[in-house]
Amino acid sequence: MTVIIRGGTVVNADRAFRADVLCVGDKIAAVGENLEVPPGATEIDARGQYVMPGGIDTHTHMQLPFMGTVTADDFYTGTAAGLAGGTTTIMDFVIPDPKQSLLEAYHTWRGWARKAASDYTFHVAVTWWDPSVHEEMGVLVREHGVNSFKHFMAYKNAIMADDETLVKSFRRALELGAIPTVHAENGELVYQLQQELLAKGMRGAEAHPLSRPPEVEAEAANRAIAIANVLGTPVYIVHVSCAESLDAITRARARGQRVYGEALAGHLVIDDSVYRHPDPEFARGHVMSPPFRSSHHQQALWQGLQGGNLHTTATDHCTFCAAQKAAGADDFTRIPNGCGGVEERMAVVWDAGVGTGRLTPSEFVRVTSTNAAQIFNMYPRKGLVAAGADADIVVWDPEGTRTISAQTQHSKGGFNVFEGRTVRGVPTHTVAAGKLVFERGELRAEEGAGRHIDRPAFSATAA
Ligand code: URQ
Ligand code: ZN
Ligand code: ZN
User: Fold this and answer.
1) DSSP 3-state assignment of 130?
2) What confidence tens digit (pLDDT) does each residue in 40-55 have?
3) Which residues line ligand 1 (CB under 6 A)?
4) Residue 219 resides in a domain
5) Ligand 2 center from residue 198 Cα (angstroms)
6) Are 256 and 311 part of one and the same domain?
7) Which of 138, 145, 249, 314 is close enough to 59 for a disulfide, judged by CB 3.0 to 4.6 Å?
């Protein structure tokens, strides 16, 4: 397919400039003024619009088996929804059961992802430890394009990594030139607080945030940062939700430590009042971890993005329908944790970021695409509109508006944490691997069109 995007303003993380963009096959062929239009090319009129690198969502869970059920979005529906929102690459997670071979789990997830409509890549979770895990981490880096390993410091009695696993896995990641990432919540404290709340008879979703206060997240963030500091490895903290964790990152970075932070679109604009909503189904629909926080934390997270102490925006897209969430109707600890957002992320970050003056268009590109590509070693293939890069592009109408609703969303789960929010700034066209897959509301996602993206290690000191 040949696509020419005419008359727009190209926005990269470093600058914005007027140029046409020519895509031939799955690559960008040329970026420049008044480009020749090849015969038969599909033409997109981008006058008055921005032409930006396709979004990279660093944190999704499609088709995840979790807490006794499986998420509502699979790799096709979830990536299709992402394309409708301008996201052209997702970073999902292989999560082995404890004692399960990492390689076996990796191949299972690769099988599930074959139906993806957009490009995808995997962080691999280290949920247990023995010499075989050490070996298989090496195989995953050398042979399967994995350069990031996830550690859940929460979820005791399930996938929680203890300190021995953290230390040994971080050490191994350093040897391999891979980056450790963490879900930073102290799982022991969460478990203890959950039991105390249940014993007091607090069983509804309103208890969820009380079992995971910001201090529980900050303890784990500080611990992960300290372990990384002693071992000399970088560390990436996913879904930073509170000021206290951000402070830990900011202090470490001020000392010169290589720490990265991720903010979720939901945590940037939704507060914890959702858990006190009179409708229990609505409150359960917002149960995710870390939970939505009181409003001053949103302000802190925006300052983190503006100040360069938070680097990426993601969604942790992990959707469950009302019936699935109802498993915890009388025990909040059994509500499957997770919310959606893969389709709404970019419009929410644009509306609340660029629309308020917090972010420039280039800073928007940096936190929705470029930083992710650079931190996880996909740049300049991804995260840039330039000749030679993948033809993953979103054409953005800064004046267009849309009211978000589960009624019109493409993702499954029948619920939307951004319900009713009207955003200014919307994608009008998405080009993924050179194909026009979304055009003014019409989604033409193709099951199986997505490719697995290998991510080379940064530098290996040992095999
Ligand atoms: O913790 C995660 O990132 C996964 C299991 C999704 N659920 C969630 O509540 N964040
Ligand atoms: Zn998590
Ligand atoms: Zn997650």
Assistant:
1) coil
2) 999 999 999 999 999 9
3) 61, 66, 183, 288-289, 316, 318, 337-338
4) yes
5) 23
6) yes
7) 314
